[in-house]
Specification:
The protein is α+β, with helices and mostly antiparallel strands. It is 37% helix and 22% strand.
């Protein structure tokens, strides 16, 4: 590696040194649980003027690579997002109040004591158990809107029916034993809540969810207006558990979408932190929020 400032060479390090350090770091990560310092690598980072391992939370691009494309002869500079399978599964869509979905409860009336009793359920599967308590009293859930307008409009930009589709997938997650994206979408397709014409076996739901996952992976954020402009213009670099690196390039769009669809799941975030999972009342009507968080398996 050569670093040049202006016309002056300020640093030259052989690639063999990077391979040596990478092997050392991989061994450390695989053999050491939790968070830990690696002084040898910290010094090496300083030597190569690398001041941070993490990209800004406002960007999907972790590394920019000049790709030598043998098919076109072009050498574009492309941004890639890096996901590692060495530690805990990383998130694709981070939880927040920005990813809350609001449902209206009809078909039942609740006293304040009943509301308090349901909201105080604190089992390991408390959200699912609270929903079960509501439905046992005749309560029916119907999707109203996303809590944040920006997120809802971002979804509509991707597909006009995506908010309703995600709301259905999300409700199945909190009321069933399934968490894998593919399994939840299959349930939704079978039930067909949007009453699509599936006589010719069109896969409406999986197609639209794949578009959603792709846009989330490459640029869309719930709190920012989405224009369809990809940030990670190259694709994904996956660091497997054995240290091998696999590239899913946007050029191979179908393969990339299939990877996201097959390798993600929904997860439950902190309900107190993100303000969801309780009955609340507005203008005499009952409501309930559910939170969407997508994580790699």
């Amino acid at each position: 590696m050569v670093v040049v400032s202006g016309n002056e060479e300020i640093l030259r390090i052989p690639i063999s040194e990077f391979k040596l350090r990478a092997g050392f770091l991989l061994k450390k990560i695989r053999n050491t649980p939790g968070v830990f310092p690696v002084p040898e690598i910290e010094q090496f980072m300083k030597d190569i003027n690398c001041l941070s391992l993490k990209a800004s939370s406002s960007a999907k691009t972790d590394i920019t690579i000049v790709v030598h494309d043998q098919r076109t002869g072009l050498q574009p500079s492309l941004g890639f997002s890096i996901k590692s399978q060495l530690g805990n599964p990383s998130t694709l869509l981070n939880a927040g109040e920005t990813t809350n979905f609001i449902y209206k409860i009809t078909g039942a009336a609740f006293s304040q004591k009943e509301i308090d009793d349901i909201n105080s359920i604190s089992t390991k599967s408390k959200i699912k158990d609270r929903i079960s308590a509501i439905t046992s009293k005749g309560g029916l859930f119907s999707f109203v809107k996303t809590q944040r307008t920006i997120f809802g409009n971002n979804l509509i930009l991707i597909d006009s029916l995506l908010p309703q589709i995600l709301a259905s997938v999300l409700f199945h997650f909190y009321t069933s034993s399934h968490s894998n994206t593919a399994d939840l979408v299959k349930i939704t397709e079978t039930q067909n809540p949007l009453d699509f014409d599936i006589s010719d076996k069109h896969l409406f739901y999986s197609y639209k969810i794949k578009r959603f996952l792709t846009d989330i992976a490459l640029g869309m954020m719930p709190s920012k207006v989405w224009t369809g402009q990809y940030d990670a213009t190259g694709g994904y670099l996956i660091v497997k558990a054995d240290g091998e690196i696999v590239c899913y390039h946007i050029y191979n769009k179908n393969e990339f979408e299939d990877y996201l669809f097959a390798n993600t799941r929904l997860d439950t975030a902190s309900s107190t932190r993100h303000d969801f999972g309780v009955i609340y009342k507005e203008a005499g009507e009952y409501y309930f929020k559910l939170n969407l968080q997508v994580r790699f398996k």
